[in-house]
Amino acid sequence: MTPPPPPPSDASVPPPLPATRPARDPEAALELLVHGVGGHTPQEMLDSARTVRVSGDETAALYRRVADTDAESRAAPPGGRREPAQEAYCWSGLTSGGATRALWLLLLPFMVANLAHWMRPDTSGLPRARRLYGALVRLVALSLTVLFAASACEVALDLTAWQCAGSAACAAHRSWLAFLSPAHHGWWSQPGRRLALAAAVPTALVTLLWYLSRRTWAMYENQRTPDGAEEDRAGTARGTGPDEASEHAADLPALARPGFWYGRRVVARLRAAHTAAGFLTVGAAVADAAVRHDTAAGGTPALLGRLLQAALAACALAAVLVVCRSGRSESVRDPRADGALTTALPAASLALLAASLLYAGWSRPGWRSSGTLTGDPAFRAVALAQAVLAVALAVTALVLYRTTRRTGTALRGLGGPAVAVLACGTAGVMTGGVAQRVADWLDGGATPGMGGAAAPAPPTLLSWQASVIPALLVLLLVPVAFLAVRTVRAARAERARVEADYGVGRAPDGPPADAVRTRQIADRRAVVRLTDRAPRLVGVLAGAALLLGAAAVALSWISGEVPGRAADGAGPFTEAVADTAQGVGSWLVGFGFLAFVTLGRLAYSRPGIRQTIGILWDVGTFWPRAAHPFAPPCYAERAVPDLTWRIRTWTRQTGGRLVLSAHSQGTVLAAAAVWQLDAEARGRTALLTYGSPLKRLYGRWFPAYFGGPQLTALHREMRLWRNLFRDTDPIGGPVGATDGGALPEVDRGPLKDPLAYGRSAAHPLPEAVSGHGGYQSDPAFAVERAALFTSLLPGLPGQQRRADTRESGEPAHEGGAGRSQGSSGRSSA
User: Fold this and answer.
1) What are the CA-CA distances from residue 182 to residues 161, 176, 325, 356, 371 (Å)?
2) Which domain holds residue 747?
3) Is 684 contained in some domain?
4) Of the candidates 106, 37, 21, which has an alpha carbon nearest to the alpha carbon of residue 732?
5) Which residue, of 616, 646, 672, is where some domain finishes?
6) Which of 583, 587, 585, 617 is nearest to 602 (CA)?
7) Which end of the chain, N or C, is surrounded by fewer C-beta atoms within 10 Å?
8) In what order do the strands lie in the sheet with 85-90?
9) Which pLDDT tens digit goes with each residue over 644-672?
């Protein structure tokens, strides 16, 4: 996973000289640009072909125009002020890069499970319920690791080493398995030794996940905040102790706490527990078959096997306890790594795995493999555990939601449980797809599980789960059709509003009516509203997946046969339906796995596909790894400290004004960085956001962190904040931060999009519908940007006074001065 090369810059321009401390100049001005999803080159952000990197590395860096590298040291023109310099922060290297980065898509279930942790409903009390919610999500995440390890064991141990290598007919068609076949009479022909050899595959998978988690943590997430910032917020700089500092930080919004973007301890503990769980799953799969054989034969080996199984169970219980007790500590920055625990637990599990391999590899001359390993009981246990955890998580979420009933929360607090179910379903499709495809490859092309007694067959549960996928897709057609009809009706109703907004036919100089143009704009406005209806579709999908998954477990338990065979004797029609569902579902599962791999590769090689799915991926990897340590790395744990460092150091060195100008996902990073600033830096900073998903996506799905009260609290700290939005934008929207009129208005919009309805003297060519992009070309952008810089000038009331009163302990709400300043320079859209 090598980081991508830096964006191209002017090769003829040498790197800048080492920076010197500029003289303090209150009129110095800097616009710090932060791009959104998909990334932009410095040349695009700065609108210049000659750019140079002033700080950072190939992954994330600050760029300027060549002419602006010394902007702070220049003298102001006679009788005027210097124009604000522009600086671009490019962080796209944190989320995109080479083709190998596409493999991160295989970690999608882990990322989705991690999202469920942050979707906890907002509540002001019930600390035990909040801790229970986090523990349940972490247990769901642990079950995904066990499922992945069990799937690797199913492919390598059961299908390959036990069934195919143990069958002379199957091994005869696979020459690379000949040395494992009983007909070969070699040292590896005994079943236990075959299993011990095949265990190298799942063991390597778990080791790879551990390595990637540890490596990406060191590369992307192990960042430090500016010196003294955490002490300033926690109060330790004033001589208070850690308990008092923790109590002080607990009163802050979550993203303002000093330890929020530094989860070293919890990630290390979870990584140790998940690694141990993976190794123990492999050890249990290897030892179980040998224990069953020895129990039937009796004697001392059976006793040793039982003791080994007890040790495996005890170590697994220890891993579960570590997961349950590994909650995040955000009130203080916790650099501890718990070296004894994080080393002892994986080491103990690895030792037990080695003992299992030795036990299974002991010579048993009369042992022959037949049937299947214990795949069905293991997969059923995982599926039942996931269902029970999902229901318990839903109950806990409802209890938390009922304490506040925060409006706008996705699925009335059930967003987290729904996403957890989708994580389990996605993992089931991926792991089941691997097993189905391998079984299909080994049995010579027959339908997996239907190829005859000698053909390798995956567990019955996987066949039943594949059979319910066509039913799930049919059920989804109902809400999709409903949304399509509703969108068409909304587009028709929107046409009149479009003509009213542009004054079509209402004034002598107004544009003439154009049915095609009206329909184009109205359709765009109606389609983007599907973003607001996505929670319902997610809820329907999660509910149907949970019910059908439970039905698959029950049917596999009752019938003990694959769907096609279980329907024998039920009539020709029933048998045909069962066979069709089994065959179609099997291919859909395999196709789903291949689609994950293909989509991941295309997402990082074709910009168009990258932008289409980029918002979902960037939302998922924005959050720290609080539930699953094997999830893709959190880029915000690098980007937020970067922005915090830059804002704080620049404002302290120059004493000047800074406007943090952010688009799309960049607005989320900007808000997180502002929360981490101290009062002095915040007093010299203004925030300009456009195309922002802060409320539309983050406020809805993550209400405990970006809900209405949290955004209003941010506005109290950052009174100079303006947000631009359009009603043709599928991602951005109003922030809506308000406090009963006591705070200056944040939102301006909706801006007209397109700027002109038809051709005119000012717009002789048809204007395109910009949607989520092109905000900086709107005239309102320049007006608001200039107003923010003007409001930050020394001597004007507002932001600086806000910082001074905050330091002196005066009330947070101020009167007319702040409001008049916040409304300066505004004009209607």
Assistant:
1) 11, 14, 47, 22, 15
2) 29-95+635-822
3) yes
4) 37
5) 616
6) 617
7) N
8) 51-56, 61-65, 85-90, 29-34, 657-663, 685-690, 721-726, 747-751
9) 999 999 999 988 999 999 999 999 999 99
